[in-house]
Write a structure and sequence with these properties.
Radius of gyration of chain B: 17 Å
Order of helices and strands of chain A: HHHH
Order of helices and strands of chain B: EHEHEHEHEHHEHHHE
Shape of chain A: globular
Structural class of chain B: alpha/beta
Helix content of chain B: 40-55%
Structural class of chain A: mainly alpha
Mean pLDDT of chain A: 94
Oligomer: heterodimer
Low-confidence stretches of chain A: none
Bound molecules: NADP nicotinamide-adenine-dinucleotide phosphate
Largest sheet of chain A: none
Largest sheet of chain B: 7 strands, parallel
Distance between the termini of chain B: 34 Å
Distance between the termini of chain A: 15 Å
Number of strands of chain A: 0
Number of helices of chain B: 9
Number of helices of chain A: 4
Shape of chain B: globular
Helix content of chain A: 40-55%
Number of strands of chain B: 7
Strand content of chain B: 5-15%
Largest interface: A-B, 3 and 7 residues
Strand order of the largest sheet of chain B: 3-2-1-4-5-6-7
Chain lengths: 77, 247
């Protein structure tokens, strides 16, 4: 079984169409990985599906980096 | 067939234009789920699909009830898969002069004809986004552009639908989803049969084609917009009105 970190990064790569080597824990979805607002909404949808959880909108807005997403998932699943 | 393997949701499919749209999409190979407000209406839909020998079914889903829409989409998704084609067709009129219009007449028309479009569209959008393919067609009216005495509520709802369509088209075009309206003129259905002879005659004078349109003449345009051939048309309103309004 892959770790949360590996699974989050895999989804980020798939959703944003970036290479794994480009994705650091500190990477910002918008500034470093080129996501637009619709991409970030879709990314959250994909994370919800992968981890079978619901991320409320006000929490989703705070997820700016890969590490933010990992921390959220670890704390809520 | 062009729409083979696609699930289509048509609201208000028990009669009139919605019924014709349900048939034309099913004839292109889509599995069509049509909605009505009553069990009786839903079984009418199931029966006509059986009679036509086409893939489709009817369900009860009041588009003016948020919970019903949420439940309805869930039911369709688990039984058939997520809809990739949505036709927002359900609609009502509550005509009255503005000076006499009741709040209930305003609210019912805005709820059933406009808020329903927001709700139903939002509920199917996730599935379309994931599939990277979708078609949303909403049935507006010539009245959205022309205005019509006695229909301030209806015209406001339909014009609102067209504005929603253009905005959503911009938001979601990069995901292979098109969002359009078809705006009928006067079509021969229960909605126009409610008018008296004097009203009908007055109406016909304004129609160069000198006749009412048939539901199938709307359905054919909807089927085209739903097809792969129309993939580069988005944010558009197509008028189908025998020449009564040319923009
Ligand atoms: N006929 C025209 O000349 C004309 C012109 C311009 C635009 N349009 C538009 O075309 C669309 C279809 O009109 P039509 O003439 O075919 O109307 P219609 O014959 O009166 O049929 C209306 C359909 O909408 C359904 N419906 C009504 N309220 C609903 C609700 N709250 N939830 C779910 N379904 C509901 C009805 O279901 P039930 O059977 O359960 O009541 C029926 O299937 C409407 O949006 C209308 O505004 C019509």
């Amino acid at each position: 079984m892959s770790t949360v970190e590996e699974r989050v990064k895999k989804i980020v790569c798939e959703q944003l169409g970036v290479k794994e080597s480009e994705v650091q824990n500190t990477s910002s979805f918008v500034e470093d990985l080129g996501a637009d607002s619709l991409d970030t909404v879709e990314l959250v949808m994909a994370l919800e599906e992968e981890f079978e959880t619901e991320i409320p909108d006000e929490e989703a807005e705070k997820l700016a980096t890969v590490q933010d997403a990992i921390d959220y998932i670890v704390a809520h699943t | 067939m062009a729409l083979e393997g696609k699930v289509a949701l048509v609201t208000g499919a028990s009669r009139g234009i919605g019924r014709a749209i349900a048939k034309s999409l099913a004839m292109q190979g889509a599995t069509v789920i049509g909605t009505a407000t009553t069990e009786e209406g839903a079984s009418t839909i199931s029966h006509y699909f059986a009679k036509w020998g086409l893939p489709g079914d009817g369900i009860v889903m009041n588009v003016n009830d948020a919970q019903a829409v949420e439940d309805g989409i869930k039911q369709i998704t688990s039984a058939h898969g997520a809809p990739q084609i949505l036709v927002n067709n359900a609609g009502i009129t509550r005509d009255n002069l503005m000076l006499r219009m009741k709040d209930s007449e305003w609210d019912e028309v805005i709820g059933t004809n406009l808020t329903s479009v927001y709700r139903t569209t939002k509920a199917v959008l996730k599935g379309m986004t994931k599939a990277r393919w979708g078609r949303i067609v909403s049935i507006s009216s010539v009245v959205a552009d022309m205005g019509n005495a006695g229909q301030a509520n209806y015209a406001a709802a339909k014009a609102g639908m067209e504005g929603l369509t253009r905005s959503l088209a911009r938001e979601i075009a990069s995901r292979g989803i098109t969002v359009n309206c078809v705006a009928p003129g006067f079509i021969d259905t229960d909605m126009t049969r409610k008018l008296d002879d004097a009203q009908r005659d007055a109406m016909l004078k304004g129609i160069p084609a000198q006749r009412l349109g048939e539901p199938e003449e709307i359905a054919d345009v909807v089927a085209f917009l739903a097809s792969p051939a129309a993939g580069y048309i988005t944010g558009e309103t197509i008028h189908v009105n025998g020449g009564m309004y040319m923009g």
